[in-house]
Write a structure and sequence with these properties.
alpha+beta; homodimer; DNA-binding; 3-stranded antiparallel beta sheet; 28% strand; 11 strands; elongated; Nucleoside Triphosphate Pyrophosphohydrolase; 5 helices
DNA sequence: GACCCGGGTGTGTTCCGGACACTATGCGAG
DNA sequence: CTCGCATAGTGTCCGGAACACACCCGGGTC
């Protein structure tokens, strides 16, 4: 079977930058390529877009196929289409940006035949194609977006302590925050549900657990409320 | 001549949302389509991506071809690829977002054979394809971006008054700003060059003219400075 | 020359964000 | 049982920004 067109067409792929948070290290999911080009190199999960699926669906499908992951947050990042970025010919890729709770996905899970692993974003191996650029763009986006949209919670387990939340922001923004001011600000938004539980198995005073209230956020958002770090 | 591939490929286009400022009305450039589908309807300027050009180049080329415009600011916006958005088959479009100084481009200029015109963004005719979505996305982006990057100046003539600048922000952000504070803030950034000229032909006290200092901004940017509102 | 229109500046009040250091609690070691 | 340790949790003060209001300026119109 083959397909013929009057004019040449680039091939279209999607690639996903999936972030996860491991304690206070920000991780990205990579897949080791089995075939040329760049066989043996690590790359972002991704693949070709099918004719009947939307771009978002393609991203979700490839991610599920290659790693078994269904991210809690997925959004389009940027489209990379410089001629020459793929040695096989003209390939345009729509990059996606995803966040997952690492607690839901066993670290270093090799789900398929392919080898998949989490790497610290500050210390990745050399990547295939222009995936280093894609990762860089995704990091920038994460850094910019985390401050004015409550997407950071997608990286944490459902129940978390305020210290965990603060660590998350410190890791992503690459700077330290003041504990008192951070708590004041985040609690003033009234988006966290205070639970009657504390963390377990720690050798010091246990911290109270909180839960992010998605419903309340949606309401406030409609009313013109703006989340801001 | 024809081109054959082993798997089917979507066609790839670029479309441009070009904004211009006319006094205190925000305008968008539209082209009237000559051919089916949507013949006679207004649409965003755009066309097919060639195999040897980058996406940015394709956007610039199509814009020049269809309207003669070379925008002072151009950036990628979002990629739209829902199956069914084009009745001719699967077409994925990379949307771009551009700003021009209307003073450089005669309003209602019909440069080519095609009819091109500026419309108020709040009052456009019914658009072809999903271009209304694209326009909406572009407006959101403009609104978000204008506050933390000095791209608004690309909409004004090289020499402008502070009131013009304030109007621009009020129009884009859809809310009123305090005159005193606006001036204080913008002047405190030290990015405007105060000229020894005033506006002409006004029936009241003439306002002083200013010019945006691109060089100084680049310097400050490198030094970690952040433009904000 | 009176008045009208926006341009441009000053001031007082309130509000918000950032800087800053100590006490409380629970566990484990000895 | 006590002590030590590691982290949880908490309030105040200050300066600058936001906001509201009031005023003078300069030129054109009638």
């Amino acid at each position: 079977m083959s397909y013929t067109y009057e004019y040449p067409r680039p091939a279209l792929t999607v690639d996903c930058v999936v972030f996860g948070l491991d304690d206070d290290d920000l991780k990205v999911l990579l897949i080791r390529r089995g075939v040329e080009p760049f066989a043996g190199r690590w790359a972002l999960p991704g693949g070709f877009v099918r004719m009947e699926e939307s771009l978002d669906d393609a991203a979700r499908r490839e991610l599920e196929e290659e790693s078994g992951i269904r991210p809690s947050h997925l959004e389009q990042l940027y489209t990379f289409g410089t001629p020459g970025r793929d040695p096989r010919g003209r390939v345009v890729t729509v990059a996606y940006f995803a966040l997952v709770k690492l607690s839901d996905h066993v670290p270093h899970a090799a789900t398929d035949a392919r080898e998949a692993a989490w790497f610290s974003v500050w210390d990745t191996p050399k990547l295939a194609f222009d995936h280093a650029d894609v990762l860089g763009t995704a990091l920038q986006r994460l850094k910019g977006k985390v401050r004015y949209q409550p997407i950071g919670f997608e990286l944490l387990p459902p129940k978390f302590t305020l210290t965990q939340l603060q660590r998350l922001y410190e890791v992503v923004l690459e700077r330290e925050l003041d504990k008192r001011n951070f708590r004041k600000k985040i609690l003033a938004m009234d988006l966290l549900e205070e639970l009657d539980e504390v963390e377990q198995d720690v050798s010091h005073r246990a911290a109270r657990l909180y839960r992010f209230d998605h419903k309340k956020y949606k309401q406030l958002e409609k009313a013109g409320f703006n989340f801001e770090l």
